[in-house]
């Protein structure tokens, strides 16, 4: 997959400031025409899903891998839910997260937070990107939590570095 120049510059910035958990990605949130090779991996259905009581359930599909998640009731999460279903190109950053860049901004009203946890889905408003965090990391103060993964996080470790993921209401 050929990366635009903006992705290369942003990757260098991310390497310089590893404390920032949401380095931007280059991409286009249109339906992709080619799917990256994704290993066939099943999630452990015996793992307890700790979904919030309220919110919008979603599924994230990358090849044969299906991940469940829930979007919360923040305005940015509601804006994103209104775009579903959508297939977006994601890229792995620093072995801790997958990032996709949106075409334009979502409504950002906060609250901002810095206590990111594995499984969080966050919106990074300076670069209109969404990040799925799957490993421990630090944070920047411009993130809004928009949801969380409710299934096993280890499946992200086996995905390709660049992968198309389809997000749908679950």
Describe the structure.
This protein has 170 residues and is mainly beta. The protein has a single domain (5-169), classed as Cyclophilin, CATH 2.40.100.20. Helix content is 11%, strand content 32%. It has helices at 5-16, 75-81, and strands at 56-62, 65-71, 86-93, 97-101, 112-113, 120-124, 129-133, 143-149, 162-169. The protein has an 8-stranded antiparallel β-barrel with strand order 1-2-8-6-7-4-3-9. The radius of gyration is 15 Å and the shape is globular. The model is unreliable at 1-52 (pLDDT under 50).
Question: Characteristics of this structure?
Answer:
eight-stranded antiparallel barrel, 2 helices, Cyclophilin, about 170 residues, mainly beta
Write the layout of secondary structure elements.
Layout: H1 5-16, E1 56-62, E2 65-71, H2 75-81, E3 86-93, E4 97-101, E5 112-113, E6 120-124, E7 129-133, E8 143-149, E9 162-169
Antiparallel strand pairs: 1-2, 1-9, 2-8, 3-4, 3-9, 4-7, 5-8, 6-7, 6-8
The overall number of domains is 1
Overall SS class: mainly beta
Tally of DSSP β-strands: 9
* Beta-strand residue fraction: 25-35%
CATH class: Mainly Beta
Assign the CATH topology.
Cyclophilin
Helical content stands at: 10-25%
In the CATH hierarchy, the architecture is: Beta Barrel
Radius of gyration: 15 Å
Distance between the termini: 29 Å
Order the strands across the largest sheet as they lie in space: 1-2-8-6-7-4-3-9
Biggest sheet descriptor: 8 strands, antiparallel, barrel
- Average of pLDDT: 76
Element string (H = helix, E = strand):
HEEHEEEEEEE
Shape: globular
Number of helices: 2
């Amino acid at each position: 997959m050929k990366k635009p120049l903006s992705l290369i510059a942003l990757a260098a910035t991310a390497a310089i400031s590893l404390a920032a958990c949401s380095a931007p990605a280059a991409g286009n949130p249109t339906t992709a025409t080619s799917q990256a090779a994704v290993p066939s991996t099943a999630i452990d259905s015996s793992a307890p899903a700790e979904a919030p009581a309220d919110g919008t359930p979603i599924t994230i599909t990358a090849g044969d891998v299906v991940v469940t998640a829930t979007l919360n009731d923040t305005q940015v999460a509601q804006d994103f839910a209104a775009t579903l279903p959508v297939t977006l190109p994601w890229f792995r950053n620093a072995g801790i997260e997958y990032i996709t860049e949106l075409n334009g901004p979502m409504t950002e009203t906060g609250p901002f937070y810095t206590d990111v946890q594995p499984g969080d889905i966050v919106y990074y408003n300076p670069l209109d990107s969404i990040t799925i965090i799957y490993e421990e990391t630090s944070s920047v103060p411009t993130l809004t939590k928009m949801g969380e993964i409710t299934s096993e996080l280890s499946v992200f470790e086996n995905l390709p570095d660049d992968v198309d993921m389809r997000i749908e209401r679950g």
